[in-house]
Amino acid sequence: MAQHFFFPQKTYVDRRQQLMKSVKGGKILLLGNNESSRNYKDNWYPYRQDSSFLYYAGINLPGLALIIDCDGGEATLYGNNPSIDDIIWMGNQPSLEELASKVGIENVKPFHQLFLDVYHDMHYLPPYRPEHILMLEELLHLVELKPSDKLVSSIIAQRNIKSKEELEQLDQACTISAKMHKTVMQKAKPGMYEYELVGLASKVAMEHGGDFSFPPILTINGQTLHNHAHHNKIKKGDMILFDGGVEVSSGYCGDMTRTFPADKKYGSLQKNLYKIVHNAYTTARKMSKPGVYYQQVHLAAAKEITKGLKALGWMKGDVNAAVKAGAHALFFQHGLGHMLGLDVHDMENLGEENVGYDSTIKKSKQFGLRSLRLGRKLKEGFVLTIEPGLYVIPELIDKFEAEKKHLSFLNYNEINKYRDAGGIRIEDDFVVTKTGVRQLGDPLVTDVNEVEKLRN
Ligand code: GLY
Ligand code: MN
Ligand code: MN
């Protein structure tokens, strides 16, 4: 594994200093990720460092831990220098002392020393990998772990605001993500299999030194929200939904979705539904700015969808009342967006609500709205996705109808005529500026006519 530092030493020193100031006292333990075996020990999944470790230590190698001493103002890296066997099989690496000096870490100790230096009321994060749960229990002699709320809230407050250096990486990730989407949109044809398009997409990600930032969704069944199957043959009349992003080698991610016709043009219903989603997307873009609750932006997008479906005769009644009741969630079941950064759903390992909500707003329990990952008031420097969608899920229609749900807002007779309409999502990535949002990376068309032009 090659080590490259994407930011100067000062960046990492400043990040740790800001963290120490915020946590105030005690010691912080950050565990780096290890290799993870796939089907036998030496056959690994692609390595991915823990994002908080990467953010504060910058070292993209397995087998490491970091202790930050808020009282002494120093950091110590724990790890082992490569043995001759490691060098034979994996190649030589810079020493841990050299790596530590590149990121301004003062001390280096062998990994086993961690067991002597750790004590039970240190600050640590909620673990998400089974081996880290076991290691923390062993290190701390605890049966029930107590991750530090103070550390969680300090890291979230810091990582939620992206610096200029981070935005450059995010711009790159989004530009390559857009290129990947454009390639798929230009090459797709009836008769191809979905997996052929996944192959073309991965080529674009990899030839730029990146990789997928999450398993791609590329499907003619866009109504299944997280559909990771790619075995279908694309037919005339289908729509193709591609939700995919590129992670660049610094770890920063893009996350984009386009839904386009397998033919050169959308069918007439497809076009009507697409325009509804596009209206929701542009409404949300215009409305997003510092001081606005993202939950309000989500609800405004939901109203656009409701208005559009009312015009089609699928919904009826007062638009505001329908959205308040959650009737639109028959078609828009997920949230408008989420934070984005080193993780596609940024810092979700620290608690989705800790990242996307705060003391002034709690997550709703209502179907649809409860899937909104980001609801809090927007601040300059937040990076987020805007991703409205419209999905016709026959099983959900049947359930709603059997339960006589929202009879005053839903025209089941009309809706049932279009049970195979599929699913549409449009997703792009933005940074919140002083006055609004700026799209990250080179933009890719979203307008219905421009998509059709690209398909030609
Ligand atoms: N790719 C999952 C999402 O858009 O949130
Ligand atoms: Mn997303
Ligand atoms: Mn996505």
Provide structural commentary.
The protein is an alpha+beta fold. It folds into two domains: 151 residues, 3-Layer(aba) Sandwich (Creatine Amidinohydrolase, Chain A, domain 1); 292 residues, Creatine Amidinohydrolase (Alpha-Beta Complex), CATH 3.90.230. It has 16 helices and 17 strands. The chain has a five-stranded mixed sheet with strand order 6-5-4-1-7, with helices on one face. Helix 8 packs antiparallel against helix 9 and helix 11 packs across helix 12. 43% of the residues are buried. The model has no long low-confidence stretch (mean pLDDT 97). The structure holds glycine (GLY) and manganese (II) ion (2 copies). One manganese (II) ion binds next to loops. The site of glycine has 6 residues, from loops.
Write the layout of secondary structure elements.
Layout: H1 9-23, E1 27-31, E2 37-40, E3 43-44, H2 51-57, E4 65-69, E5 74-78, H3 84-90, H4 96-102, E6 107-109, H5 114-117, E7 123-124, H6 130-140, H7 149-159, H8 164-187, H9 194-207, E8 211-212, E9 217-219, E10 239-244, E11 246-247, E12 256-261, H10 268-287, H11 294-312, H12 319-325, H13 352-356, E13 383-386, E14 389-391, H14 394-402, H15 412-415, E15 423-425, E16 428-432, E17 437-439, H16 448-455
Parallel strand pairs: 1-7, 5-6
Antiparallel strand pairs: 1-4, 2-3, 4-5, 8-11, 9-10, 10-12, 13-16, 14-15, 16-17
Helix pairs in contact: 1-7, 8-9, 10-11, 11-12
Bound molecules: glycine and manganese (II) ion (2 copies).
